[in-house]
Amino acid sequence: xxxxxxxxxxxxxxxxxxxxxxxxxxxxxxxxxxxxxxxxxxxxxxxxxxxxxxxxxxxxxxxxxxxxxxxxxxxxxxxxxxxxxxxxxxxxxxxxxxxxxxxxxxxxxxxxxxxxxxxxxxxxxxxxxxxxxxxxxxxxxxxxxxxxxxxxxxxxxxxxxxxxxxxxxxxxxxxxxxxxxxxxxxxxxxxxxxxxxxxxxxxxxxxxxxxxxxxxxxxxxxxxxxxxxxxxxxxxxxxxxxxxxxxxxxxxxxxxxxxxxxxxxxxxxxxxxxxxxxxxxxxxxxxxxxxxxxxxxxxxxxxxxxxxxxxxxxxxxxxxxxxxxxxxxxxxxxxxxxxxxxxxxxxxxxxxxxxxxxxxxxxxxxxxxxxxxxxxxxxxxxx
Length: 383
Ligand SMILES: *Cc1c(COP(=O)(O)O)cnc(C)c1O
Prior knowledge:
The protein is of the alpha/beta class. It is 36% helix and 15% strand.
């Protein structure tokens, strides 16, 4: 495969792992819908492929591209973000180990660690990642992993990746960054000291709300070998069509993230001006508590915006029911704009816990439609 390491981001997105097909000249990587591969004599693999759980050429193209986008040596694709999360944790933790996680972790990540890994003797401590002293204080002799997300969901808290990498490594722990909310265009945690980057490629990487997938990227050969062992051994692999759809989405990641960020900035400005909005959460705002760190480690500020509506839950629910372009739905990161009420939808399970989100909170995933239309739609719903 062509070495694309020296190219810019958009060039890598379009070419890494995606040389024209050597047998047909097909410019686009084919969907290799096959479970097995003919061998030239026993053990005579033609291109290293023997069975599609172990490896598939469409998936291999996606994996090479994902690694190139994060600046890592190895990429592994999975059937979902949770499949990638499960694989990463099983590669790095054994019974008796301890993990530090964000106190506002993605709900599925928290559920897996709290409900499944705890049964296998793996302990965890949720911590506010913006408080580095609290993270240091949570470290135990058996802490094997510090797992972070930045920005977080739905309050868009920002964690200092480089600083937390140091904390993890001085504790002898591995440092994992779930980079789903930023995407590899906006933020590259491996360059800042992370050992592993995780993506739910369902979101910005795929970008079109048409496929569920996950990825792990690392430059650590030994860790990647373990990820590969579990990818094959446990089998949470994407099919070739899923890999192809994701690869197709990736080609436009740079232009999409630029437009998501432009539109989110315009939506943020309009929300700040609206008399019914009492607070706006966006890392691009100078008064956001994580703004300085975000400006240091993010190329743009992304497409996710949350805000508080005056009048409490009732008014927040009213806004969610009145938009026409912003579709009422969970998930994020697609070209189309979405709106949701975290308290009743994505974060309903946090009710009554320390992680409970405000009842007057609304979250939007700002799409790449015309900005004026998005601003008009939200403003009309608020009026
Ligand atoms: C969606 C999401 C996941 C889980 O990914 P799936 O593809 O839905 O399994 C993990 N982390 C974050 C931050 C997410 O938004």
